[in-house]
Amino acid sequence: MHTFLISVTFNMPKMGGIERRKKINEDEEVRKKSIPFIYLTTIAGPPAMREAYEMCVQAFFKKAVTL
Questions:
Q1: What angle is formed at CA 49 by the lines to CA 45 and CA 50, rounded to 5 degrees?
Q2: How far is Cα 48 from Cα 44, in angstroms, rounded to an integer?
């Protein structure tokens, strides 16, 4: 048995985190697997968080801008 977790940021090159989640939600086989999906990003305002949770993500974490 395998355990999976998908962690993305909003600002990915070519396809952002929201677009990535939409793409996964469109694939019924992947969606059936119920893989936890979390955002780890520097963008964590209420609109972004609301949009993420509307797509049934499991977590949304704001990462620090500096070390």
A1: 115
A2: 6
- Encoded amino acid at 28, one letter: E
With tokens 């929201």, the residue in question is: 18
8 Å CB contact between 17 and 42 = no
pTM: 0.72
Helices 17-26/46-54 angle, 10° precision = 10
DSSP secondary structure code for residue 15 in this structure:
S
pLDDT tens string 7-60: 888 777 888 888 888 998 899 988 888 889 998 888 777 888 888 888 888 888
Q: H helices of 7-63, where?
A: 17-26, 28-32, 46-54
Residues 6+ apart with CB under 8 A from 34: none
